[in-house]
């Protein structure tokens, strides 16, 4: 039996074929199906709503786009699509693609990202940790509401886990929260929530 490697896409091909399809992102030329489900979208929307409420309450000049891609400047064939992203409006004028496409190239424009874990959990816990740290995104939340991540990432026994990643000296320091723990974030100091607040009923 012969192995046929997947067809690799360029960033430009991905934008033409898949930019408007929120189901897909591109990593090193490989098309990745993010496998969103109804509960996944429920959690993503819940996070976005709670974060937007804090942005509005604090009168911050930030926005949460409905759809957005991140093109790391050093990766020619990568287009990441976070589940929730918060952008600094003041930095958008420095984005070379923003006026034509909802694409961010500079990590300084990004205040915060969150990923809701699906069956492709390796991307959220490993690849994106590296990518987002390299982009110097200060805050990254990994919301694993079904406890899908590998044991080395969420421990044993597997259980729902909320990981807050804070960038310190170029690397993420991680704080994990389980059910019934109160989750805090220095970016949104008055936003206190629990993982069970996010899990679909």
From TrEMBL:
Q: Which organism is it from?
A: Dulcicalothrix desertica PCC 7102
Top-level taxonomic group: Bacteria
Instruction: Specify the protein name.
Output: Putative restriction endonuclease domain-containing protein
Matching Pfam families: Uma2
Domain Putative restriction endonuclease residues, every copy: 19-195
């Amino acid at each position: 039996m012969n192995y046929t490697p997947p067809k690799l896409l360029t960033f430009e091909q991905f934008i033409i074929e898949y930019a408007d399809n929120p189901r897909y992102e591109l990593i090193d030329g490989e098309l990745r199906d993010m496998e969103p489900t109804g509960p996944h979208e429920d959690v993503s929307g819940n996070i976005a709503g709670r974060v937007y409420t804090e942005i509005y309450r604090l009168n911050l000049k930030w926005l949460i786009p409905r759809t957005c891609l991140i093109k790391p400047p050093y990766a020619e064939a990568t287009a990441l699509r976070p589940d929730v992203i918060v952008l600094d409006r003041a930095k958008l004028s420095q984005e070379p693609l923003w006026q034509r496409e909802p694409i961010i190239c500079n990590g300084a424009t990004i205040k915060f990202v969150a990923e809701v874990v699906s069956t492709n959990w390796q991307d959220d816990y490993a690849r994106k940790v590296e990518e987002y740290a390299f982009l110097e995104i200060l805050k990254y939340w990994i919301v694993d509401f079904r406890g899908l991540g590998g044991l080395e990432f969420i421990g044993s026994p597997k259980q729902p886990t909320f990981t807050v990643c804070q960038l310190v000296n170029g690397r993420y320091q991680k704080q994990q929260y389980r059910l019934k723990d109160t989750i805090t974030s220095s970016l949104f100091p008055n936003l206190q929530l629990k993982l069970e607040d996010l899990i679909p009923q």
